[in-house]
Amino acid sequence: MTRKKRKIQNYSILVVPDTKDNPKNYTISSFTLRILFFTAITVLVLIIAGAASYWSVASVALDYVRLEEENFQLRTSLSRVETMRQELGQMQKMNSEIRETLTGFVQVETITANDTTEMSELNFNTMEPEKRRTIFNFIPSVMPVDGFMTRGFLVDDLIVDPHYGIDIAASKGTPIKATADGTVIFSGWTLQAGYLLILKHKYGFTTVYKHNQRNLVSTLESVKKGQVVALVGDSGKISSGAHVHFEIWKNGQPLDPMRYVSTTIAKQ
């Protein structure tokens, strides 16, 4: 007859110290041991599942933050593009106005509406002195500022960029005077020339004053020869010191200012 194997009910753990102390015996039931084993397995599975879920949620959160940063950068770039587009539109409009001015397409009624006479048609010998003086008031014939000429008129050099006027160095804040009677057709800011002033005169003349510290007259305002219209400055991207860049145009063609204005300026 085979003996039935006895089922283990308890487990004993004997702890023997390496000293003279008596050994200690710990007893734990098999049922309790099984409960602890399954509990440990369950806790381990939960830890692994929680870690997997955490990394999944963290990955989604990181992707969300990255997408938010990319969206912010895209919005910033679009805002910059829109700003540049508006600035480009303003510059194109300003460039168109200046080109029209310098090519004689802009008509200022206070100056040219009823006066189409060319200088070559005028007879100064038979003209009354008062009228002769009035005519010369509309022709650029005085320097806009007292100072030193640092660069002259140059349009024929194939290597150096054309220089359509003369540069007159003077201290900042020095008054700039209108070289002839006329009307302001542009008074404002440009990136290259800084504060820019353009005057329209009779007989096809136009004068230009660049890099001003500030303009003292407004668009469509009438000015007289010798009137202070701006102050010498150093404004604009291409300016390299306090000076005024002065140009004279006639019927859309640049002229050497030194052929018209008084030569009371010193050359540096």
The radius of gyration over CA amounts to 45 Å
Number of H- or I-type helical stretches: 3
Q: Shape, please?
A: rod-shaped
Low-confidence stretches: 103-118
SSE pattern, N- to C-terminal: EEHHHEEEEEEEEEEE
Helix percent reads: 25-40%
Tally of extended strands?
Answer: 13
Query: For the record, what CATH class of the largest domain applies?
Result: Mainly Beta
What separation lies between the terminal Cα atoms? 134 Å
CATH fold field value of the largest domain = Glucose Permease (Domain IIA)
- Average pLDDT figure: 79
State the CATH superfamily name of the largest domain: Glucose Permease (Domain IIA)
Q: Could you describe the largest sheet, including whether it forms a barrel? A: 11 strands, mixed
Number of domains: 2
What would you say the CATH architecture of the largest domain is?
Distorted Sandwich
β-strand percent reads 25-35%
Which class best fits the helix and strand makeup?
Answer: alpha+beta
